[in-house]
Request: fold
Amino acid sequence: MQEKLSELLRRYKEIESEMAAGDYLTHAKEHKRLSPIIEMYRHRLAAESDLAAAQELGLDDEAEKAKAQIERFDRELKILMLPKDERDDSNVIMEIRPAAGGDEAALFAAQLLRMYTMYAAANGFKTEINDLNETEIGGVKEVSFSIIGDNAFARFKYESGVHRVQRVPDTETQGRIHTSTCTVAVLPEAVIVNFKIDDKDLKVDTYRASGAGGQHVNRTESAIRITHLPTNTVVTCQDGRSQIKNREKAMLILQTKLADYYQSQADAKYAKDRKMQVGTGDRSERIRTYNYPQGRITDHRINYTVYNLPAFMNGDIEVLLEALHTADIQSKMQSN
Reply:
């Protein structure tokens, strides 16, 4: 880790020099990512100096304090250096749909929508409803909404899956507990993909433009065929009388086709991610259970239970989100 940190510090100083010289935008994102790591590393280096000084002076208590600081800084650095999910900074599109349970599931979907929007508002996020289909009794048949703000996906990504509620519905005359489910999908906001066409990925052929019946319109090889080798996308253009004009137009057509191709790939992955998140919505599938008679919420992924259901449904969900985040970090540390 020391070798890696030394290399990151060298890179950080290099970035700062280039930013000071005016090249700010190019390096702003990398600078932001490295800053907390370098700050922690500098604290560690200071603690190492304190330890050396304390040992030289025979100050055992001070030396022990410095050792404890170094251990703490090392733990923090390991966390900061874990591979980062590039989607964490994205805004979020959230979808909630009732699954098993009819009207009761639709009412629970409405409560989940309220829970998330209240949490978002309390934590500085902006929410926008994209599509809402309600029932006559105040439930939600389906809803799609955006959550906008810094690190939105990092905060909400653990909420995807099947949410199960156990309670006595208002319409239940026998006092029986019913079990209903809703599916929640949390997806990073889709953006139009950016791509670069590399010259080495292109095969360019020229040929003579021809008219009806195969008669040559001109005697020069002005027509252009461009093949994008990675995607096997082929475009041709022979409308213009000059090769340059035909090439320009062919490249414009190719860019349009590739934009559609790459966006389709991104959309397909988006749809696949959503399908994987929500499962079938069956009662046996659940990431979390909301048990009203016992006033508890249990997250089955980390076997974590809290007993503040009324406050939780009013958006006080931070303690559980933090527990999920901590468990995720611990899992990543064990696998690295």
Notes: DSSP finds eight helices and eleven strands in the chain.
